[in-house]
Design brief:
The structure is a single chain. With 226 residues, this protein is α/β, with parallel strands linked by helices. The chain has a single domain, classed as 3-Layer(aba) Sandwich (Rossmann fold), CATH 3.40.50.620. It has seven helices and five strands. α1 runs parallel beside α2. The longest helix has 16 residues, at 100-115. It is globular and about 50 Å long.
Length: 226
């Protein structure tokens, strides 16, 4: 029996790599979707290519969708990325990209329907994250409901599933799960504001969460330097 196809949103980061590996281990074939949306950390596209190759994705599709015209985020504009932020502080940081996961899941849903696939995978997490509204379970449930009425396949009775294998895991749990699957996190990229050459800043939310995750998992980050 052939593996069930799943469209996986693959950013090149630690989370999406782990999510892809988890569903692959569960018997899905990976159709990786990477989106160049004008993000300042575009080096992650190269990481996504490495990850897709390592996972032997059936296909790795890259789409250009420049969100810089909208602005509204320090990831798609010249606004400085916040550093040394208290992750427990209230409020949504400027690294939030307006409606990004809604847009990305819509693209993934479109490709899934074209492939006659019914499964979409996204590596969102509602524990160790920056408080983005489109990373929460209620958002995912709402989008899943939308998929049933927004597509021909859904109207004809198909049931789309949005898989979020990392939703209730801590960053340390995610790393432990990935290491148990034999993942090489040296292939990934997490920093929101890397230096020339891709060296992580170590001070943005993403860097801090990654470092804390490896520390709590009692594992070495292959990207850690000096």
């Amino acid at each position: 029996m052939s593996p069930t196809p799943a469209v996986v949103l693959l950013s090149g980061g630690l989370d999406s790599y782990t999510a892809a590996a988890i569903v692959q281990a569960e018997g899905f074939s990976v159709y990786a979707l990477t989106i160049r949306y004008g993000q300042r950390h575009a080096i992650e596209i190269e990481a996504a290519r490495r990850v897709a190759s390592t996972l032997q994705a059936v296909r790795h599709l890259e789409i250009d969708l420049d969100l810089r015209g909208f602005g509204g985020s320090s990831l798609t504009s010249d606004v400085p990325v916040p550093v040394d932020r208290d992750l427990a502080a209230a409020g949504i940081p400027s690294t939030y990209v307006p409606a990004r996961n809604t847009i990305f899941l819509s693209l993934a849903l479109g490709w899934a329907e074209a492939l006659d696939a019914r499964d979409v995978v996204i590596g969102v997490n509602a524990l160790d994250y920056s408080g983005y509204p489109d990373c929460r379970p209620e958002f995912v449930r709402a989008f899943e409901a939308l998929a049933s009425v927004a597509t021909r396949a859904g109207v004809e009775g198909a049931c789309f599933r949005i898989h979020t294998p990392l939703m209730t895991l801590t960053k340390a749990d995610i790393i432990r799960r990935g290491l148990a699957l034999g993942l090489n996190y040296g292939l990934t990229h997490s920093c929101y504001s890397p230096a020339v050459g891709g060296r992580p800043c170590r001070r943005c939310d993403s860097c801090v969460l990654r470092a804390r995750g490896f520390r709590e998992a009692e594992a070495d980050d292959p990207l850690a330097v000096g």
